[in-house]
Amino acid sequence: MATSAPRMLRLGSLLARQAAPSSLLQQQFRTFSDNAAAEAAKAAPEAVKADSGSKGKIRGVQALIFGGLGAGMLYGYSLFTSQPPPSGPLAGPPTLPTGTAPKTSTPGDYAAVRDSISSLLEAADYDDGSYGPLLVRLAWHASGTYDKSSCTGGSNGATMRFPPECEWAANRGLAIARQLLEPVKAAHPWISYADLWTLAGVVAIEDMGGPSVAWRPGREDYSDGSKIVPDGRLPNATLGAKHLRDIFHRMGFDDRDIVALSGAHTLGRCHPDRSGFSGPWTNAPTTFSNLYFQELVNNKWRPKKWDGPLQYEDAKTGTLMMLPTDLALLSDRTFKKYVAQYAKDEEAFFKDFAVAFGKLLELGVPFPSAEKAAATS
């Protein structure tokens, strides 16, 4: 009779499936199952007596039948009704949360976007504890491809979403920043990627103690990469003063702007798997300040002995680094005077940087010519 028990379970399950549409039958099956379980419990001791005789054997068979039917009913009930037993071995699976779509903000609520960006800046397991420097780099590189002579490039279009721009050597590591901002885009689907990336750079600077940077919306997203400009428009850190002027003058900046924007190196660090260089410029890489200029003028710099590209380290500790383009700010007489000024006067640096960075983010953006609204800050 032991081999008949599985059949009893299947029979009970089948009966329960047929009964599931009727709440009355469900109750009857539940009552029947309870009675069957009680009968099985009462008869089980007699079924296991080896010398109980034919009457005991009959009772044992009854226990198996009623127990199998009862268990099958209860099992089938738990599978095919909306109210499975809440506990016990035949209880149904736990109820899993269904989740809800992310709540989206009202179009034009840029304060909500700012809050969303701010909420994800701190990250104890990333670099020096903040994604802020990375978001500044994203905004910078998305905007720094502009050419004033052809009016191409710039932040409009968010073309870094597409190859080959997203694969440029200068943009290595920025996929992390773009992916980081995807939840913000999902929560505020009305904002363009081009606006989101530039606003993220502004929020990061301000949240890390930097100046307020004027920002306004109006950038659109291109549907493909057909307007991606040629590679090579972003600064090459291995070169010198002439290269810096070629890059920045092409965008419409002057020498003062070049030095002010270089001050963004007060944030973050270089990574060998991205730029090929390694290390931070300052000992406070998540705080926006004029410390970059102070380190530049107050330290002695020597070439770093390593297998990577030429970079410099401070002679005192060997823990800080400078790039060839950084030291070019000291070797060029015009650049050097601004470096000296910013090293002494953080307020002057903040003021000039805010103006230059705000200009950078708007290069190539076709804002309506009749627009009179003040920039959103």
Automatic annotation (TrEMBL):
It is found in: Mitochondrion intermembrane space; Mitochondrion matrix. GO terms for cellular component: mitochondrial intermembrane space; mitochondrial matrix. It comes from the Eukaryota. Its cofactor is heme b. Keywords: Heme, Iron, Metal-binding, Mitochondrion, Oxidoreductase, Peroxidase, Transit peptide. Residues 85-107 are annotated as: Disordered. PROSITE patterns: PEROXIDASE_1, PEROXIDASE_2, PEROXIDASE_4. Residues 177-377 form the Plant heme peroxidase family profile domain. InterPro entries: Ccp1-like (IPR044831), Haem_peroxidase (IPR002016), Haem_peroxidase_sf (IPR010255), Peroxidase_I (IPR002207), Peroxidases_AS (IPR019794), Peroxidases_heam-ligand_BS (IPR019793). Signal peptide: none annotated. Residues 85-96 have a biased composition (Pro residues). Its EC number is 1.11.1.11, 1.11.1.5. Destroys radicals which are normally produced within the cells and which are toxic to biological systems. This is Cytochrome c peroxidase, mitochondrial. It comes from Volvox carteri f. nagariensis.
